[in-house]
Each structure stands twice: as C-alpha cells, then as structure tokens.
Amino acid sequence: MTGTPERDEPPESRPERVNGAKGFASGTLPDLPSLQLLVAVAETGSLGRAAVRMRISQPSASSRLRTLERRLGLHLLDRSPSGSRLTPAGTVVTDWARAVLAQAEALLEGAAALRSRQENRLRVAASLTIAEELMPGWLVTLREKAPDAHVGLTVTNSWGVVEALRRGECDMGFVEGPQIPDDLHRSPVGQDRLAIVVAPGHRWALRRRPIPGQELADTPLLVREAGSGTRETLERALRRYDGIAVPALELGSTAPLRRAAAQGVAPAALSVLAVREELENHRLVEVEVDPALPLRRVLHAVWPKGRELPEPALHLLRAASASDKQP
Q1: What DSSP string describes 183-241?
Q2: How confident is the model at residue 15 (pLDDT cuts 50, 70, 90)?
Q3: In this structure, are residues 158 and 127 in contact, taking their beta carbons and an 8 Å threshold?
Q4: pLDDT tens track for 90-111
Q5: How many angstroms separate the Cα of 316 from the Cα of each of 7, 268, 323?
C-alpha cells in the first residue's frame, strides 16, 4: 500500500477530518495571511501578482492556498497553464474574507488607540502640601512638554502615597515625609521646612527669642494627622524632647488648621509653602524656633523598584526637579 501525500506535509497543511471527511476541524481557523492572499488573487487576477503583492514566492503562495482549501474543505482556485481564477466557492469565500480582514484591521486600530491612551495616561499620588502648592505648576509644565498626557491625581498623605504605589494604583508618587521605604526608588524634587505660625495677637508673635525645643514639645499645637509627612517631620524634630504634646487640633487637611491658627486657637506646625500667602498678608506670623531643630525636609518623587517610569512620568519628574527652590 502506497503512502498518502498528506504524511509528507507539515502538520499545519495536512487535511483535517470531521466525521471521516476532509474539512474544517473544530477549533481550527484560517490564518489571516492566507485570507489576505486569497483577496489579493481576486484583486490582481493572478496568483503570481498576488504573491508579489504579499512579498512571497509563487510556490509559497500556491502552497498557502492549497492549505487554506484543505482547512475549509473547499476548492477555491482553478489553476491552469494560462493562469488561475477563483471558483464560485472561492468568490463567496473571498467576500467573507474581506469582512474578516476588515474586522481584524478595526481590532488593530482600536488596540493601537487604547495603547496610545494607556501610554499617555499617568496616575499620580501626591501628599497634600505637594498637591496643593506645587503640583499645579508642575502640571502646567508637563502640558507644555507632553500635551497628550492625561494625569489622574490622588491626594493623600505620604504613607497613603506609599501604599497606593505598593497596590499598583499609581505610576509614581510625591512625598514629603523624611522616611522612604527601601522598596521605592526616590528622586529629590525640592525642599521644604516646617513653620510654627500664630495669629498676630498670640503671645508668641512678639517674642524676641527663639522658642526652645522643649517648650515647643510641651505646647499643644495644631497639627496634621499621623501618617502625613508634616506630622512625621515634626515628631522626628521633637523626639529628643519625648515627642509632641497632645495636639490642640489634629486634621487631615491644611486649610482648617490655617484658619484655626489665624483665629488664635493655638500655634500651628505647617509647611511654609502652605502658609506663605497668610504670612505675606500678615494673617499669620512665623515664630522663630531653636535653629537646631531639624524642621527642614526634602521632597521626593517615588516609584517602585524594578518598574520603569512611563514617558509622561519622566516629563513630570523633570518638571518637578527643574522647579526646585528652597523656601
């Protein structure tokens, strides 16, 4: 018994059998290049010209169409010494192939649009002071450098930024806390310092000598919540004096603390960036404190180690670094 030609062909070109007949196997689909070749034959009127269009050899084109015929179980092309022409079945399949190829092109175009949108989408988390006082200017610069970038900003405290990065909820973050976990990259983008501010009528407003560290530690202050970079900086500065006293008021935002300080409720420990307008308008007065207290801090951009920053994030990082000014 002689062997059949099918055994000498590669597996992908062997005829599939369904219920004992050659035809379309369950789960096997024609490949798109073969459908493109079939359409090219219909449009050029020649297998040879179709092969040139597809940039393959004529024998390869002929083999590819034979494989397509076996997969579909249909005779698609009549071949003769004078040329090749589509059979009636080939004409019908060609029309179907055009529809399939059009949908495939729509899929590729849609995927490219989604990819572009994702590549230009930047998720940022920033601590409150940075988000309110610095981020607006950075975003203006980013828009000039990368006009197609779309930024989603989450405002939280410094430890909230760290947790958002660890959960994959943002691409990069900006923190003002002195402690940055080892699993994050860091890049300095500016400097800040805490200011002790009071209302103009407060007894400290007329004080001529700096407030000693112990007196500051013993005084109930208006402070940010635990987990904020501002609170962490203050606690580290007063650690040698057994930390801060029970706060007069503790809030997760800066604006009400500024108002409470201006109304004379208590001294407030806030970023100088957050109170500069009140200081300029004399609604608040900055009190001099012991210069040995480490109330300065470095602001950082942070992102997870092992992860590359997307292009819009690099533009934002450059914008933030370029605006570095010491208060």
Answers
A1: TEEEEEEEEEEEEEEE-TTSGGGG--SPBPHHHHHHS--EEEPTTSHHHHHHHHHTGGG
A2: very low
A3: yes
A4: 899 998 989 898 888 888 776 6
A5: 61, 31, 11
